[in-house]
Amino acid sequence: MQTLRIFLAASVFMLIRFLSLFAGETEHWGEYGVLYNINKNWLLVSDYQMRVRDDIQDYYWWRFEIGPGVRINKWVDVRVLYRNKSQEQKPGSWQVEKNLFIDPTVKLFNKGGNTFDIRTRIHTRLGNVGRQFIRVRPRLTHRFNIGWRKCNWYVYNDFWLQVSALGPSDRWNTNWLDTGFKWQLCKNLDLTTFFQYRSDKLPATGKWDHDPVIGTSVMLNFDRIARHF
């Protein structure tokens, strides 16, 4: 059974990697965050992400997020996040955008080491810069252990539906297909490595443009650190 799980995870990863052969230039997304579990129901999370494009040569984008999360029950949790984002428009000129995210996540299946959930993100701009979306992300996660390390493999698709004055055929204009592995580097530090097939619908032509993304995420859990004191 364990061999079958590894085979399925590797197959999905290779499928997305194969799709990237027909895509554009590779990006790298690096994310660094901290998480604190206030109690069994409430948490506080904050992270910073930077993006590099043009085959990992051009640093063009960064964002900072912070906000609380609450576990309503064993099937539903909600996070509210504030984001400050900056993107390079041309050399030396950066545009700042501020957002508020409301992220309810509902588990539809949770048995053994397998979970299927759907997150619906209400992506709202604060101010006049940026666009507004409703994002729907179904995700399958498989949890397992390697020795004492807690690990998981996941795959999801993130549908971006723009909420603005667009025709119905143009609302779905961004799509992220993603798979990755998360595991504990040590008791209080988690590492996630992922591969993403990113698609954007070009307004001028109506055609889809595709780019591969290689990503890493490091998350420090302060709650686990506090247990040592």
UniProtKB/TrEMBL annotation:
Highest taxon listed in the record's lineage: Bacteria
Quote the protein name from its UniProt record: DUF2490 domain-containing protein
Species name? Candidatus Glassbacteria bacterium RIFCSPLOWO2_12_FULL_58_11
Lineage of the species this protein comes from = Bacteria, Candidatus Glassiibacteriota
